[in-house]
Amino acid sequence: MDFFFQLLVNGLSIGLLYGLSAMGFVMIFKSSSVLNFAHGELLAIGAFIFLVLSTWMHLPILLAFLITLVGCFVLGFLVERIFLRPLIGEQLIFVIMLTVGLSAMFKGLLLFIFGGNLHTYPDFLPEGLALHLGAIYVPPVYVASSCIGIIFLMLFGLFFKFSSQGIYMRSVADNQTAALSLGVHVRKVFALSWAIAALVAGMSGIVLGIINGTNVHEISAIGLKVFPVVILGGLDSIGGAIIGGIIIGLLETFIGGYISPSLRDVLPYVILVFILLIKPYGLFGLVEIERV
Amino acid sequence: MDQVRAELEVCDLCLNFGGIKAISNVDLHVETGELIAVIGPNGAGKTSLLNCITGYYKPSSGRIIFNGVDLGNYSTHELTKLGIGRTFQNIELFPGMSVLDNMLLARHIHCRYNFGLASLFWPSVKKEEVRHRLILEEIIDFLEIQHVRKELVGSLPYGMRKRVELGRALALEPKLLVLDEPFAGMTLEEKEDMVRFLMELNEAWGQTMILVEHDMSIIMSISQRIMVLNFGEKLAEGLPEDIQIHPEVIKAYLGETTDLSLDA
User: Fold this and answer.
1) Closest residue of A to B106, CA-based?
2) What is the mean pLDDT of residues A58-84?
3) Which end of chain A has the least Cβ crowding within 10 Å, N or C?
4) Overall number of domains in chain B
5) Is there a contact between A17 and A209 (Cβ–Cβ < 8 Å)?
6) Is any Cβ of chain B less than 8 angstroms from the Cβ of A104?
7) How far apart are CA A68 and CA A52, in angstroms?
8) Which helix or strand (DSSP H or E) is residue B12 part of?
9) Which candidate in B92, B99, B100 is best for mutational testing of the A interface (most A CBs within 10 A)?
10) Of A65-69, B122-126, B135-139, the least confident
């Protein structure tokens, strides 16, 4: 039974991380209907900026963390400005292909700079952060990532509920034309959703890097996991992304723990197919009925 | 009653989509306090004209001047701040939000307080929010939608949604209100209500309005001036009673028949 709870705790903290990273993806999709195939690379960029700042430049951890987040935010903003804005009004498929290109470009750049090897951060999390719940041991990194995850979720909840920018973002996601008619700066909302998505992705990248070490291929592959997560949760539901992330995280750890570690990367996709057979719009997705 | 200045001058407006001329050389002048209707057969360019005025389309050539300001220099979302509000042919609301929330979003352009004060729950912020809410209540009373103000828009019937959309446009406190087919798809009773609201808006509140509509009997009874478009060109402009007997207009609507004996 202890093994079960150990897996449960691990699964929850990993899942929360998947959910957070998927939230960034959903945000872009909701506001501009763009599927961002470069999401995994955004995670990797966050992890590597943190690597440079913390390990190579020896900045204090908290400072490195904050600078990375700001850097990712600016990067997301610039990506929208430079690459996506010229394509506003073009067919969606062009924009989606552009994100595929971005993904290749970022991956190439990272490989060029850092190579394909595994890099690790120094062990900076104090052992005191670890939790001992009976026989269950929660390593410090899981405690830290869960705390960061929950804090960010609450911050975003407040942001979307109370700040005017957050409300604009929701209005654009709900109905772009109506938002425009009320004087909402739609292009600014697009830029902001890219910036926030990159920020959240970067943060997830850092935590994944702490858990597994950073490797370009691995982290960007984890970024691809947003697809099962968001499709499971419903492509356009932020809450769904979090819950989808937790479900996928739990599935992975339980399958890895009870059946075989080599199955853990495959089975989520298999289960995904079955869920989609039953609920094609995901668990919380908007059922769209087009009337002509 | 002191009227808000709303003068619109459309000069020599052209709009092309590739090789298709949606609007060619259209002029329109709207005075403060006027209620002007734009009519024409399907595909005549009525909605395109409205979209140009509200900034959704950028004209290929020509100028649109509102209260002395050239609208070509502004992007779409800024036009709202200049005082142009609109509704849409196919209702554009936020279906997952309540009527009140839909209308509240329109008030953000009038918000004076900033993020810092708001997060401290400053008293002036509270006062301002109460003021916004009072304005909304006035509009809600006027449109007689008190009973649905907390309902989700998605659950309301079509005619009621049209009314909410008008309410949201009014919440912007626009100087010029642009309405795209406000009566489309309504039942007779809903139309009568809407006519009453628009008449009162124009007469009692002095609201300047441009509207596109197909229902001729309503157009003839409420508008002060009518412009007729056909294939993107201005066919005629004048008082309702003149337009009704204008030979070109009758031809555009009914075809080439010269011998009209509708009364028979």
Assistant:
1) A182
2) 93
3) C
4) 2
5) no
6) no
7) 10
8) strand B8-17
9) B92
10) B122-126
